[in-house]
Amino acid sequence: MNKSITLNHLVLYLYNETELTESVMVQQAIDHDEEIAEEFYSMAAARDLIDHSLMHAAKSSINSILCYAMLTAPLHKKATA
Amino acid sequence: MCKDPRNDQELVSEFLKGNEDTLQELIVRHERKIFTSIYLLVKDRDLANDIFQETFIKVIKTLRSGNYNEEGKFLSWILRISHNLVIDHFRSLKRMPMVYDTDEYSVFDTIQLEDKNIEDKMIADQIQSTVRALIEQLPYDQREVVIMRHFANMSFKEIADATGVSINTSLGRMRYALINLRKLIHEKQLVISM
User: Fold this and answer.
1) Minimal CA separation from A21 to chain B, in Å
2) B-chain residues within 8 Å CB-CB of A38?
3) pLDDT in tens, B89-135
4) Predicted-complex ipTM score
5) Fold of the B106-187 domain
6) Are A7 and A30 in contact (CB under 8 A)?
C-alpha cells in the first residue's frame, strides 16, 4: 500500500472531506494500487448501503407533536395565525 | 413553475411567527433521518417513537423560548437533542447498549432479496430492513459515528468534538463500521441489489 496514504485518508476522501491536493493524491493511489482500490471500493459499497436504511416515524407520533405545538402555541400567535 | 423550497431557517422563523404549518414541513423534511437515528441507537420502534416525540417537544420549547441560534444547522441541532435523550434513556436504565451476538438473529433467515418477482416496494422495504439490521449489529461507538455522519451530515471533525475523541478515532470508527458492514453481508451471504 502507498505509504503516504493512510486508511483514514481513504475515509475522508470517501466522504468528500479531503482538500483538493489530498484528493488528487488519494485518487492517484486508488488508480495505481490494487490494495488501496479494493479497500476503497469495499468501503464505498458499504457507505452506499447505509443511506438505504431510512425509516418513518409513526404517523401518530407526528400527529401528537403537531397537536402539542397547536395546543401550546402562544395566545397572541394563535390569534394572528 | 415551482417555488424554491424554503430553507430550514426560514421555516423556523415562520413557525415562531405563529405559522404552525411550517412545523409540519420541517418534520416531514427531516423525520426519516431523525427517527432512524434514534431507532438505530435504541433498537426498539415504540421507544424510538417516544424519544422522537420527546425530541420535538424539546425542539418546540427551545424555539419558543428564543434559545435557538444555530443558523443553517437545524438538523444537526435536532439530532444532538435526540442523541442526548437517547443517552438519558440509557442512563436511566443504568446501562449502555451492548453489541449482541448475531448467530440467533432471525431477520436473515427470512430475507430473499434475490427474488426478481417481488414488487419494487417490497424489495426496497426488505433492503431497508436488512441494512438496518446490519447497522444495529455494529458496536455502539461505530453506530454513533455512522448516524452522525450519514444522517446529521456532521463532518468527522464535528463528530470528534461532539463525542470527545480525536478525529483519527472517529475516522477509525467509521472505517471499522464500513468494514464490519461488508463483513456481515459476506457472512450472511446476502445479495443486496439496488
Assistant:
1) 19
2) none
3) 988 886 555 544 444 443 334 344 444 455 666 666 777 778 888 88
4) 0.77
5) Arc Repressor Mutant, subunit A (1.10.10)
6) no
* Shortest alpha-carbon distance between residue B175 and chain A (Å): 6
Integer Cα distance of B160 and B171 in angstroms: 9
pTM: 0.73
Domain layout of chain B by residue ranges: 8-92, 106-187
The 3-state DSSP class for residue A76 equals helix
User: Cell for B43?
Assistant: 433498537
Q: Of how many residues is chain B composed? A: 194
Taking the C-alpha atoms of residue B21 and residue B64, their distance in angstroms, rounded to an integer, is 15
**Top-level CATH class of B8-92?**
mainly alpha
Which segments of chain B does DSSP mark as H helices, in order?
Answer: 8-16, 21-42, 45-65, 74-92, 120-136, 140-150, 156-163, 167-187
Question: Measured between CA atoms, how close is B177 to chain A, in angstroms?
Answer: 9
Interface of A with B (CB under 8 A): 7-8, 10-12, 15, 17, 42-43, 45-58, 60-62, 64-66, 68-70, 72-74, 76-78, 80-81
Domain assignments of chain A as residue spans, ordered by start: 7-80
| Contact residues on chain B for A78, CB-CB shorter than 8 A | 18
